[in-house]
Amino acid sequence: MKFFYTPILLLTLLSCKKDDQVETPTAYRITKNITYNNISVDVIIDKPAINNLDVLIVFHGTVRSDSEIITAANTTLDSFKSILNIKPMMIVSVAHPQENILFGDNIIQAEAALLWVKNKANQELGITVGKIFLAGHSQGGYLVTRLNTMHQTNGVIANSPGPLNLVYRCGLEENGQVQSSATCLKLKNVYGLTTANSSAYFERSLLNFTNGFKSDILFIQGLDDSPIQLHSWPSFKQEVLNCTTCQNSQFVEIPGGHTALFTNASAKTKFNNFINSR
């Protein structure tokens, strides 16, 4: 039996085939400069081969210069992807600047990335964003904790967030008890010594952002971290637990150093359970 197609039917079939090819989801990893409210920042986007997906936005720790932030963003993406063992998610790793700004001022780039995912990623990437989670390591943990006081998401994970107390940390540097850092030197050039202007240092410390969490948050801290981190950790934890204007806060304290989330099996399980339960 032979089949004959009218010109209109043949055109319809070809169009359907073309549309199917265009709509086939693809996996990719790209570096993209995104803009929201006139604030631009580079992000690394790792997308699985689905178009309806949840998103994990991740933030790297401190680097010495902005020439290193793309590498740091890629490394951080790989680190979080390696412990993510639930359904595939798109990961957006933010290459937030650090070199020519005061500590904490990159919150505007961090916020721009979050709002871009919330409001523009659908159209620009041709996807449908479902749930949005934030995760950060070290200074990245600082940023996601601050973002949690500003915008609601489906959940936040902060691993070894800090600096917790810049008054204490920079004071040690001023006294020669620890090696000087670019973070404290830049603050000193603007605000003077911690003894003269402690409030300016405290305002940028994570201890100043322990209220008003808009989403549930999971804090992970290795108990073999640096003495500077562990000195202020109990105070930070207690301030968060005392919060009466916060959503649920969970704390996981485990053996391990600054990168404990990525090496401790229990922490990895807590991380995945936190995301999977929301």
Distance between the termini: 56 Å
CATH architecture of the largest domain: 3-Layer(aba) Sandwich
For the secondary structure, the number of strands is 8
Please indicate the percent range of residues in DSSP E strands (runs of 2 or more).
15-25%
Strand order of the largest sheet: 1-2-4-3-5-6-7-8
- H/E topology pattern: HEEEHEHHEHEHHHEHEH
The secondary structure category is alpha/beta
Q: Count the helices. How many?
A: 10
The low-pLDDT segments are 1-20
Instruction: Report mean pLDDT, rounded to a whole number.
Output: 93
Instruction: Sketch the major β-sheet.
Output: 8 strands, mixed
* Total domain modules: 2
Task: Write out the CATH superfamily name of the largest domain.
Answer: Alpha/Beta hydrolase fold, catalytic domain
Residues in helices, as a percent range = 25-40%
Mass-distribution shape: globular
Radius of gyration: 22 Å
Instruction: Write down the CATH topology of the largest domain.
Output: Rossmann fold
CATH class of the largest domain: Alpha Beta
Commentary on this structure:
- It is a single chain.
- The protein has about 280 residues and is α/β, with parallel strands linked by helices.
- The chain has 2 domains: about 25-165 and about 210-275, 3-Layer(aba) Sandwich (Rossmann fold), CATH 3.40.50; about 165-205, no CATH class.
- It is built from 10 helices and 8 strands.
- It has helices at about 5-25, 70-85, 105-120, 120-125, 140-145, 165-175, 180-190, 200-205, 225-240, 265-275; strands spanning about 30-35, 40-45, 50-60, 90-95, 130-135, 155-160, 215-220, 250-255.
- It has an 8-stranded mixed sheet with strand order 1-2-4-3-5-6-7-8, with helices on both faces.
- β1 (about 30-35) and β2 (about 40-45) form a beta hairpin.
- The longest helix is centred in the N-terminal third of the chain and has 17 residues, at about 5-25.
- Mean pLDDT is about 95; it is low at about 1-20.
